[in-house]
Write a structure and sequence with these properties.
The protein has two domains: 79 residues, no CATH class; 333 residues, no CATH class. It contains 22 helices and no strands. The longest helix has 35 residues. The protein starts with a helix and ends with a helix. The complex comprises the extracytoplasmic solute receptor protein and the two transmembrane proteins. Keywords: Cell inner membrane, Cell membrane, Membrane, Transmembrane, Transmembrane helix, Transport.
Length: 433
């Protein structure tokens, strides 16, 4: 069996192991180590096993992960999610379907200081579900707006998936964050448009608009200034060249900590739980990175990326056809696999193929994360749907899955726009200092 075929078989085995429930880090590391031993012998595999953990953990940029996670945890613990929801309600609550719109806007804003889709769904869901039920909203719209809005935390910076993509492909994390801003705003706009169309066609989905006094609206909007300031300083600092991504993460985490301390929201038990949550999540991600590094060694040694590039060149497929096949591949895989696992497993051999076809690596990163985002609300494995049911156990799976269909249509439109107009992702990075 040729080396590239060994690499392809390794990918299939790793995919199967992940789908049957083996931890991602173990599956990638095991396949990488065994595959490398087959290609280079046991002594070669032993050397890689000894060096891979150090090489995987060496990059300074990895420190951005726990720092952004810490920022998100502090923001969640000090009540910024409720402030953002109230501010969004004050801005759009008087419109038909206003609470659903407020949920999407608040999810986008909280995702901008959290970086995690699952945390956004869990945090905003606890606030939004009771509010929308009390206002007479149908569970289809309320559940779907929370689940779909939560996906914005994957794309809008700071995004943990973008950090991981940047580390795997050696791309600028700052440029990736900058590239994600306009697509993230576009996603928010299209989700809002989806809500507006739904309540126009089916008025029974939404309760009556809520009218707030001007003074109350102003107070609710102003209460969200700490969240806006944290985002503006952290992400604006990257955009204007004031901070590196790691420095921005540290500034954001410190800002969120100061807000939590000022609000007296951090007792010793809460602080301990917050730190343990960050340590646990960081350990999981770093363990996966070590496994992915072993898998990358194996894939590169097998020559799988070069084999795929050569096979595509011989097939005569156009660059557009290859891109379409890659998108379909990711969409199908996203229905059955966690987005982080999907990126770790596929990027090592898909990325060289796509860049060899002439596509911009920053733009492709936004495309990959967008497709991963769609997978979060796509049955049967859509993780956001399950997290939402954890927040509101009485929500029927069928209700949630029916409700997300209009938002998936909005996602398809956004994906088409991103492919047709790459400058949506590439214009802002070109302006970075």
């Amino acid at each position: 069996m040729s080396d590239p075929l060994v690499g392809l078989l390794g990918f299939v085995v790793a995919l199967a192991l992940i789908l049957v429930g083996m931890p991602v880090a173990v599956a990638l590391g095991l396949v990488g180590a065994v595959g490398f031993a087959i290609l280079n012998g046991v002594s070669g595999a032993a050397f890689v096993l000894a060096s891979a953990p150090f090489e995987a953990m060496f990059p300074y940029t990895l420190s951005v992960i726990p720092l952004f996670l810490l920022m998100g945890v502090f923001a969640a613990r000090c009540g910024l999610s409720r402030d953002l929801y109230s501010a969004a309600d004050a801005l759009v609550g008087r419109l038909r379907g206003g609470l659903a719109l407020a949920t999407i806007v608040a999810s986008a804003a909280f995702g901008a200081i959290c970086g995690s889709s699952l945390a956004t769904v869990a945090t905003i869901g606890r606030v939004a579900v009771p509010e929308m039920r009390a206002a007479g909203y149908d569970d289809r719209l309320s559940a779907a707006s929370i689940a779909a809005g939560g996906t914005l935390g994957v794309l809008i910076p700071p995004s943990i998936l973008l950090v991981i993509y940047g580390i795997l492909t050696e791309q600028s994390i700052g440029a990736l964050f900058s590239a994600a801003i306009i697509p993230g705003l576009l996603a928010t706009l299209l989700y809002g448009l989806s809500v507006a169309i739904q309540v126009r066609l089916m008025p029974e989905l939404a309760g009556p608009p809520r009218a707030l006094g001007r003074r109350e609206r102003r107070a609710d909007v102003l209460a969200a200034w700490p969240a806006a300031l944290i985002f503006a300083v952290a992400i604006g600092g990257i955009q204007f060249g004031l901070f590196s991504p790691t420095e921005a993460a540290a500034v954001g985490a410190a800002g969120a900590l100061l807000v939590a301390l000022a609000r007296r929201a951090l007792t010793r038990p809460i602080l301990g739980a917050a730190v343990m949550e960050v340590v646990s999540t960081t350990g999981m991600v770093f363990f996966i990175i070590v496994g992915a590094t072993l898998f990358n060694f194996f894939v590169e040694t097998a020559g799988l990326p070069q084999y795929l590039v050569g096979a595509i060149a011989e097939s005569g497929f156009s660059a557009g056809t290859v891109l379409l096949l890659v998108i379909v591949f990711y969409l199908v895989l996203g229905c059955f696999m966690d987005s982080m696992a999907m990126i770790f497993l596929t990027v090592p051999f898909i990325f060289p193929v796509v860049t060899a076809m002439g596509y911009d690596p920053i733009w492709f990163g936004i495309l990959v994360v967008t497709v991963a985002e769609i997978g979060l609300i796509t049955p049967p494995i859509g993780m956001n749907l399950f997290v939402l049911q954890g927040v509101a156990p009485d929500l029927a799976s069928r209700t949630v899955m029916r409700g997300v269909v209009p938002f998936l249509i909005a996602d398809a439109v956004r994906l088409a726009l991103l492919v047709a107009v790459p400058s949506l992702a590439l214009w802002l990075p070109s302006t970075m200092r």
